Amino acid sequence: MQHGMGGPLPPQEPVGHTGWAHGPQAHAPGAPPQGGHPPVPPPVPGHHPYPAPAAPPAPAAPPAVQGPPPGWGGAPAGQATGHITLPPPVTGTGGATIAVLLIGPAGAGKTTVARHWAGRRPVPTAHISLDDVREWVCSGFADPQSGWNENSEAQYRLARRTCGFAARNFLANGISCILDDAVFPDWPVVGLGGWKRHVGPGLLPVVLLPGLDVVLERNAERSGNRRLSDEEVAAIHGRMAGWYGSGLPIIDNSTYDVETTARVLDEVLARAIAGAPPA
Known about the structure:
The chain has 279 residues and is an alpha/beta fold. The chain has a domain at 99-273: Rossmann fold, CATH 3.40.50. 30% of the residues lie in helices and 10% in strands. It has seven helices and seven strands. It has helices at residues 110-120, 130-134, 150-172, 192-199, 212-220, 230-240, 258-274; strands spanning 80-81, 84-85, 99-103, 125-129, 176-181, 204-208, 250-251. The strands form two sheets. The protein has a five-stranded parallel β-sheet with strand order 4-5-3-6-7, with helices on both faces. Helix 1 packs across helix 7 and helix 5 (212-220) packs antiparallel against helix 6. The longest helix has 23 residues, at 150-172. The chain starts with 79 loop residues before the first strand and ends in a 5-residue tail after the last helix.
């Protein structure tokens, strides 16, 4: 009979077939072959004429488990997970020598936060207050509350140059510094470019901008020539809103106390030093 695919079928083994023996019983040792099959050699004690089947190959080792992408958590910072080493988290400025410009309207808390941040750093850090330097002028002091004029503008300009000189001097001696000023995004006379020319291109600007109601409340607690009218505060605060969309980091400290604001400021500066985008 021919197989449907064109090849002859092998002869059917009789019932009772067990391996090499044919017929109802196995061949006796040394008996002549039947049906043309070769004789089965007699067994030799302790000897196996046919090699044992090869052992199955060992299962392949599972692939190494790779860790999550950086920033996804998991292993402690700096430890290897699979083939990826997680970078250390950005936690603060540490011992970096830096120059910071804290920008914000009157009543934002710039001076208080800057002084607190400088006083809590583990390395020498100076706070350079623009208002303090401007008030070094005792006789002939031009008070902007009496009206902004060329004298008050000239004294502010002189104070900014003096602060910039002091900052460069501190940095040259390994001392970090933080300055504070109400820098406007739409007024080149009081612009960020001038501060970078005075201090250096590495100056790190951060905007402190709480809500208007908070600024008005804080301004009301001031006294002397540092207290402004509500109209002036509202106008300054409105112009400061122009920093949104500028790319500068902005901290809304409306609900933060001084300690929390200083900590957030340090984290923002650490990201700037590391080249990371603002959170």
